[in-house]
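Exercise 7.
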Amino acid sequence: MFPEVNKMTSSLQFRLTVVAIIVAVFLALVALIWSPPAAADGEFSRLTAEQTAKAKRALQFLDEMEALYFGTVAKLNGNDEIESVDINDEFAVRNVKVMRGPVVEKAGRMRTHTLKPKADFQEVRLWTRFFSADVHPKTPKVGMLHAAITMHFDSDGGSAVAGWVDILPAATSPEDLDHLKAVADEIFAKYGKDAARHRRMSIEGTEGEGTRRREPAGVGGSFYGRDLMPWTEENFAFMTEMYREFFRAYLNLIDQRQNDPVTAEDLAKQDYQRRNWWEDRWYSDPYTRNVVPMDVWALSTLPPEVKF
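Solution. The predicted structure, written as C-alpha cells, is:
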C-alpha cells in the first residue's frame, strides 16, 4: 500500500544489520588484541614467567615423547591406527590413546591435567601434568614397560619432577636386563643420582601401596616417595633423559626380539607377568584404587589379555 515506506524500512533494516555485524567484528578484534596473555594461556595464568617457561618445555617434551612412542609402535606394527578417548570430570582432564597390532599387542598412553584433589593423600597444585605409557609386546622375551613422568608447581613455591621407569620381566634374558640397567646406570652416573636408592623404591614400593604389588626387574627406577626431586634445570634434564633413553632402549629390544622363538615356559612367564600387573592395578597402586577412574586406567594400562 505504501511501497516507498516499505522500501525505506527494508533499507534501514539492512543498514542496521550491516552496522551490527561491523560492530561485532570490531569488538571481537578489540578483545583479541587487548585481552591479557593469561586469557590465551589460561592454565599458566597463576605461574611466574620462569614457571611458565618450564611448564611449556615440559609440554613440549611430552609431545616429543608421544611422537617417539607412537611413531615407533606404528613402524613395528605396520599400521598407525590409534584410538583416542577423552575422559574428563571435576577432578581432572584426561586423554587416553591406544595402538594395537601384531608386534606390540597394546600400547597405551595416559595424559592427565589434575584440576583438584580427589583422595586425601593428594595436594592442591598450582600446575600439574602426568604422562604414562604401558607397553605390552606380543613376545614374552621383553616383558612390559611401565613408564610414568609427572611434574608440578605448588602455591607455596614448591615443585617436583617425579616418575617411575622400569619393566616387569617375563622371559626377558639376563643380557637384555643388563643392557637396560646399563642404559639407566649411565644416566644415574651422569647426574650423580643414587641408583641403588631409586631401584630399591622400584622393587619395594613406597608408602600407600597395597598388597599383590607389581614385580619389576629393578633395572630402571622409581622417582616417587616422600622426598621428591624439586623442579630444577638439572633434575628436569635428568628425569626427561632417563625417561626418553630407557624408553628408546626398551622399544629397540622389542624390535630385536620380535621374531625370537618362544617356548611354553616363556608364555607361562608372560601370563604370570600380565596377571601380576592386573593385580597391581586392582589391589596395590593407590592411584588406580582411589583416584583414576577404572575406565581410564583399564584402557590405558591393562594388558590385551589376562589369564587366570
